[in-house]
Amino acid sequence: MKRAEPGQQASTSYHTPGRPIAQQQQRDNKDKECAFLSELAALSRLSHKNLVRLFGYCSEGAERILVYEFVANGSLYDHLFHGNQPGPIESWAIRLRIALDAARGIEYLHTYAVPPIVHRDIKSSNILLDSDWTAKVADFGLSRKNPDGSCTSGADVEAGAQPKGQCTARRGRLQRLTTKSDVYSFGVVLLELLTGLKAVHWDEEARAPRNVVDCVEEEEVHCPLDRRIPPPTPAEIEAVGQLGYIAATCVRLKSCDRPTMTDVVAGLERALLTCLELECLSRSTTGNLSST
């Protein structure tokens, strides 16, 4: 469960001539409530295996508590950065599958939801893992609107503003987040999966905070892979290389140069297929050699 946080309203007071202030406030509150219920109904109709399902809400006075499905194994963030024991995500095949699951959920929001939804806060703590270790995107929330009040559309891909946590002057100027902002944020998650480093982490050599995106140079990830996972086998090297390339393209500076989430899904499908096919081939070859 989570407290509902509908879109922030402007704090400026105004008064329509000829209408009593109390009556105007009552009407404004009623309009906000109708908008909240309408948007809640739209979100509750979203249905995809890689999205956390919103069941409804509880209401008491001005409080609104959103009710979501229970996701047993917590967040990807917790498993990457707070796990003390080796777990199911300590293999490249599982990490690729988690990345693909999350990408499919975001692709659904951008491409198949009506109207399209920009998540605006993609991060590893908003990717949850169920009892079967299937990844589900959470917290795609309420009132995903542009500051001018218009709904953020999946067609608005040219803003180039970077996501929360990646504050830039450009975002400050535009004050607008789009599907390509989600792609950037997802690229950061992929870099976390590859390196085992937080989006912003402490660099011991530089003795200063460092952004994981700084690992990307000329479309390549120049950073050690997560040391908690055994080095990629020959069957995994190609797939992990593909994962690194996808992450690098997602965090390109210009939004128009980033792929769509549909492109990302297709790339991750190829990477996972490569990993599984080569792994099966490797096992088969090893079995044949041991039997001779």
TrEMBL record:
Leader sequence residues: none
Which Pfam families does the entry mention?
Answer: PK_Tyr_Ser-Thr
Which intervals of the chain are annotated as region Disordered? 1-28
Query: Which terms are listed as keywords in the entry?
Result: Kinase, Transferase
User: So which domain of life are we looking at?
Assistant: Eukaryota
| Gene Ontology MF terms | ATP binding; protein kinase activity
Q: Where is each Protein kinase domain found? A: 1-273
Write the protein's name: Serine/threonine-protein kinase-like protein CCR4
